Backbone:
């Protein structure tokens, strides 16, 4: 069972892309707090955060693409119902 994603057991869960967008927003807020810190540690963390943001943005695009494929093939799952692919 997943804790965050939509499943039969968790119909009120979130889409993957929505969770990733929330995480990206949190990282941006946190990065903004260290943007003016010139210490080597802060610069290192900022560099890592920028790389993570890029990877998360790529993951969001992939998740959105999967949603488009499933919506086109099987219709929207916004109202719930059985899984569109895979085992129920």
Residues:
């Amino acid at each position: 069972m997943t804790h965050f994603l939509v499943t039969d057991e968790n119909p009120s869960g979130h889409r993957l892309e929505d969770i990733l967008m929330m995480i990206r927003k949190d990282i941006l807020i946190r990065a903004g707090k260290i943007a003016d810190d010139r210490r080597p540690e802060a610069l290192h963390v900022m560099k890592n955060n920028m790389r993570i943001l890029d990877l998360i943005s790529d993951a969001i695009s992939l998740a959105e693409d999967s949603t488009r494929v499933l919506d086109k093939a099987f219709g929207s799952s916004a109202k719930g119902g059985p899984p569109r692919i895979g085992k129920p």
About this structure: The CA atoms of residues 70 and 85 lie 8 Å apart. DSSP finds two helices and no strands in the chain.
